[in-house]
UniProtKB/TrEMBL annotation:
Catalyzes the dismutation of two molecules of 6,7-dimethyl-8-ribityllumazine, resulting in the formation of riboflavin and 5-amino-6-(D-ribitylamino)uracil. InterPro entries: ATP_synth_asu-like_sf, Lumazine-bd, Lumazine-bd_dom, Riboflavin_synthase-like_b-brl. GO terms for molecular function: riboflavin synthase activity. The keyword Aminoacyl-tRNA synthetase does not apply. It comes from the Bacteria. This is Riboflavin synthase. Its EC number is 2.5.1.9. The keyword Repeat applies. SUPFAM superfamilies: Riboflavin synthase domain-like (SSF63380). Lumazine-binding repeats lie at residues 1-95, 96-192. The lineage of its organism: Bacteria, Pseudomonadati, Bacteroidota, Chitinophagia, Chitinophagales. It comes from Phnomibacter ginsenosidimutans.
Length: 196
């Protein structure tokens, strides 16, 4: 379980393919603190650490993960948001995030608001029932608040700290981000669907 509060960014230093799997080696200030079998959020995707060595760690994404996230676009030099799982005695500063990405969203525009940044995204219409005005959403592993929700478009505002300490600073119109909708909303939608 994660909070959507990014701890640091890492850089993909190597990508390899084995069958339909992609293995990524990532260099970061957190890598030396990790251990094998630990769950870590990578752009909002929960991946298992397979190896730690020389300031890097290695993770593998299977075909299912690659098909539903933006990990298939990663290459050497890609900047990745990282968060370790929340300790049971820790504070929940964002919202409950599972690291189970629902889909990708496309950045439609980025606007400098002279002190913050406004990002507008489009997302698959089939998920419209899972997003609400002023609700929580997780984009590339970042817990954010939705506003300007119209049809399949929504906006988020990024404060300078978040902009400087995540890969939002590299995001441009046309780029995709991993999106995880609020877990509570998903359970309520399922409850309604079943007519319980």
């Amino acid at each position: 379980m994660f909070t959507g509060i990014v701890e640091t960014t890492g850089t993909v230093v190597a990508v390899s393919q084995t069958g339909t799997n992609s293995t990524f080696t990532i260099e970061s200030s957190l890598s030396h603190t990790l251990k094998t079998d630990q769950s870590v959020s990578h752009n909002g995707v929960c991946l298992t650490v397979e190896n730690v060595a020389n300031g890097t760690h290695t993770v593998t994404a299977i075909a299912e993960t690659l098909s539903k996230t933006n990990l298939g676009h990663w290459q050497a030099g890609t900047t990745v948001n990282l968060e370790r799982c929340v300790p049971m005695n820790g504070r929940l500063d964002g919202h409950l995030v599972q690291g189970h990405v629902d889909a990708t969203a496309t950045c439609e525009s980025v606007s400098n608001q002279d002190g913050s940044w406004l990002f507008t995204f489009s997302y698959p219409q089939q998920f419209a029932h899972l997003i609400i005005e002023k609700g929580s959403i997780c984009l590339n592993g970042i817990s954010l608040t939705v506003f300007n929700l119209v049809d399949n478009l929504f906006s988020v505002a990024i404060i300078p700290y978040t902009f400087a300490h995540t890969n939002m600073q590299h995001l441009q119109a046309g780029h995709t981000v991993n999106i995880e909708f609020d877990m509570v909303g998903k359970y309520l939608a399922r409850w309604k669907e079943l007519g319980v």
